[in-house]
Amino acid sequence: MSRQTDRQLQRIHGQPGTAIAVSVNGTSAQSSALTARVTYMLCATEDCHILFGSNPTATTSSTFLPAGVPWPVTILDDGTTYKVAAIQKDTAGTLTITPMSGVHA
Question: Chain-wide mean pLDDT for the chain?
Fold first, then answer.
């Protein structure tokens, strides 16, 4: 990727901060609390299902997140402390939740 393209992506998505890693297996697992008005980039090593909420429990009916596909999400500032929960589709893996500095709603 060219330096110009790198700079364009940084303007769109910001700089990555310290990632949160969630081990994803056959039992729903939660992240720590996410910061309101921050955009996070979610990416899983294996197909999984995710759910956001104050105390979420992901199931195989929750939102599908395919492996290796980054998904940006901005956390609402509605007074709720949000977390993300994940459960594997078929194979255990890791969900990485990376805050993108400079990208705020």
Answer: 88
